């Protein structure tokens, strides 16, 4: 049964090796596979154990000897979980088995490595292994970058086509240039033009850099001037003791930040960087590896808790008189840390606001073309604006008064027009209209007749023609008719005057009716003014009361916040004490169990005791220590040879660097290479 399981595991190993060789063929260009069936049984078992050791070294490292024995014997409880785990992590294991063929170092004895040739070959072997690591990382990065082979091929084809086009253009230009008479002069001029353009670009870049540096310098000068102004303002009205106290406070804060806060943060960042570097240097981990690490972490946390409990057990809390002071020191330290963090945040905000202010000032300077006012000039400008605003308010009040008066006058005109229309409507009878029409006609006819008569009489007198008396009689007749019309007109005026008297009486009656209402309105207006004044007083009182309540509310909120923090600290301390009680109880149970195992006469119970386990671990560690001492002795014996090899390698490195430098100088003397925006241009001298 065990042999059949072993054969089954061998066949599975061949299948896994075949899939791994397929993946490895992509990298190594068709590496030959090894068939385990052609090897003897012992060799196949050795290969299976070696491959399983590569893949399962982390999972079965604590009990490797028993694992190998169970694998050789074909134990189901060992093989079936392995097969399940292999099928579950097939992709990761293929990659790991492929990398293990190239990254697992060949163990060479120390005495053989002392040979110079073997040492050189081994160093080349390690260097090739490092090259393989870098190439494999680049390959994985290219695979994960999302670029497909079709896209890369299309890019290469387009680049080839562009290259052909450029070559053809160069050939055409060469043919055109060959027919030119002064070809060399024009080529030199083009060369000079290109150099000058490149120099112009460099100068433009330098100008941009200098402009940027100038802007930074101006911003720095502005910040320093602002700091100087702040310092001067702070110094006004301050005493020397106050300044010294302020400087001492700033010095203490800066000292705390530099000597305590920043070193701790730097240390934590360095530890994080080291941990991340270790994680990056290790190969990819699966779920099983993470479970193993979590189990180790739990064991270490348990040991830490044991040490803490042991430390607490050695000290009696009742005798520890410094415990309250330690708690106070811890609270003060936490407050200092929070205050320092708040100070850092506020400084960062202040810096960002200053930068934003500088940026806005620069934008304003670019748009307005004038310098931004500051200091005394800004105060004078504000005072000037206040004077103008008061003048504006006064003129605005006058304008509003004039508008109100204009509205009243407009309304009065409208009322008078409506009354005039009513009067005209009252006078619109047929007789009055006819009389007025007749009067107008008579006046017009009399004026016409008078003009005609005067004209005729003047002509008659000048020419000596009679007829003057006739004209006079007609004029008298017209006068009589006009007198009759004037009498009728007088009657009409009497009617109008009577109508005006009626309207005046009606207006007087309305005034008499409105007089008591106006008398009642005057005390109401006075009452309204009194209520308005009282309202303003009450409003001011309300505002002051609200401000006082807000300040007291803020103080109460701060007190509540501090009390909540104290409550949270007390609760956390209570939880910690409860956890310590639970841990003590668990340790007490374990101690009683350990005492039972130690007192028991059964050898199995004694073997289960922690003392026996620790003794076995101590013996094993002593063996490891002896082996390490032997290895140390061998290293010390071979130290001189290795130091000599290091010196030789360093000399060889210096020689190669010198050759490289000479080669670069020779290349530079033959031409000038310009690099700009990812392109290189070689200019032959």
From TrEMBL:
Pfam families: IFT81_CH. It is found in: Cell projection, Cilium. GO terms for biological process: cilium assembly; intraciliary transport. Keywords: Cell projection, Cilium, Cilium biogenesis/degradation, Coiled coil. GO terms for cellular component: ciliary basal body; intraciliary transport particle B. GO terms for molecular function: tubulin binding. Residues 64-107 form the IFT81 calponin homology domain. Residues 118-234, 343-370 form a coiled coil. InterPro entries: IFT81, IFT81_CH, IFT81_N_sf. Residues 1-42, 532-556 are annotated as: Disordered. This is (California timema) hypothetical protein.
């Amino acid at each position: 049964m065990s042999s059949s399981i072993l054969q089954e595991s061998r066949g599975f190993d061949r299948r896994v090796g075949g899939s791994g060789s397929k993946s490895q063929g992509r990298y190594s260009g068709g590496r030959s596979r090894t068939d385990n069936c052609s090897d003897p049984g012992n060799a196949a078992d050795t290969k299976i154990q070696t491959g399983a050791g590569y893949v399962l070294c982390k999972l079965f490292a604590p009990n490797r000897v028993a694992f190998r024995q169970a694998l050789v014997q074909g134990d189901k409880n060992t093989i079936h979980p392995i097969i399940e785990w292999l099928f579950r992590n097939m992709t990761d294991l293929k990659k790991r088995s492929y990398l293990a063929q190239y990254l697992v170092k060949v163990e060479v004895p120390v005495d053989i490595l002392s040979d110079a040739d073997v040492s050189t070959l081994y160093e080349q072997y390690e260097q090739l292994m490092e090259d393989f690591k870098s190439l494999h990382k680049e390959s994985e990065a290219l695979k994960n970058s999302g670029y497909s082979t079709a896209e890369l091929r299309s890019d290469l084809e387009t680049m080839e086509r562009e290259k052909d086009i450029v070559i053809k253009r160069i050939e055409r230009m060469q043919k055109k240039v060959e027919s030119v008479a002064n070809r060399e002069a024009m080529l030199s001029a083009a060369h000079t033009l290109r150099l000058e353009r490149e120099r112009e670009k460099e100068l433009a870049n330098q100008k941009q850099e200098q402009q940027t540096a100038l802007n930074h310098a101006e911003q720095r000068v502005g910040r320093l001037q602002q700091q100087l102004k702040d310092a001067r303002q702070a110094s006004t009205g301050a005493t020397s003791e106050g300044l010294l106290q302020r400087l001492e406070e700033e010095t203490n804060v800066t000292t705390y930040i530099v000597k305590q806060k920043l070193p701790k943060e730097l240390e934590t960042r360095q530890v994080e960087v080291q941990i991340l570097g270790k994680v990056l240097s290790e190969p990819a981990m699966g779920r099983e590896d993470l479970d193993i690490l979590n189990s180790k972490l739990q064991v270490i946390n348990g040991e830490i808790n044991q040490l803490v409990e042991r430390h607490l057990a050695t000290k009696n809390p009742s005798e520890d008189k410094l415990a309250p002071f330690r708690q106070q020191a811890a609270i003060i330290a936490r407050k200092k840390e929070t205050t320092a963090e708040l100070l850092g945040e506020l400084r960062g905000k202040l810096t960002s606001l200053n930068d934003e202010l500088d940026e806005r000032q620069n934008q304003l300077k670019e748009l307005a073309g004038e310098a931004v006012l500051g200091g005394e000039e800004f105060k004078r400008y504000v005072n000037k604006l206040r004077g103008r605003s008061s003048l504006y308010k006064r003129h605005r009040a006058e304008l509003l008064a004039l508008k109100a008066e204009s509205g009243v006058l407009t309304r009065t005109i409208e009322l008078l027009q409506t009354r005039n229309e009513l009067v005209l409507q009252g006078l619109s009878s047929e007789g009055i209209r006819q009389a007025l029409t007749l009067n107008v006609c008579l006046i017009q006819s009399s004026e016409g007749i008078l003009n005609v008569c005067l004209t005729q009489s003047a002509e008659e007198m000048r020419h000596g023609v009679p007829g003057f008396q006739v004209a006079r009689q007609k004029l008298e007749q017209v006068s009589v008719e006009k007198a009759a019309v004037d009498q009728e007109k007088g009657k009409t005026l009497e009617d109008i005057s009577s109508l005006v008297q009626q309207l005046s009486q009606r207006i007087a009656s309305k005034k008499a009716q409105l007089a008591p209402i106006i008398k009642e309105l005057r005390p109401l207006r006075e009452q309204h003014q009194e209520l308005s004044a009282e309202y303003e007083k009450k409003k001011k009182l309300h505002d002051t009361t609200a401000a006082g309540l807000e300040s007291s509310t803020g103080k109460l909120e701060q007190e509540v916040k501090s009390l909540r923090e104290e409550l949270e600290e007390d609760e956390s301390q209570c939880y910690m004490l409860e956890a310590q009680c639970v841990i003590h109880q668990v340790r007490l149970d374990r101690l009683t169990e350990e005492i039972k195992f130690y007192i028991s006469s059964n050898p199995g119970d004694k073997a289960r005791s922690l003392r026996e386990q620790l003794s076995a671990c101590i013996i094993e560690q002593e063996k490891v220590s002896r082996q390490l001492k032997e290895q140390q002795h061998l290293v010390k014996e071979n130290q001189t040879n290795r130091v000599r090899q290091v010196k030789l390698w360093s000399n060889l490195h210096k020689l190669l660097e010198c050759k490289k430098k000479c080669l670069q100088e020779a290349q530079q003397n033959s031409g000038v290479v310009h690099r700009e925006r990812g392109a290189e241009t070689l200019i032959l001298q």
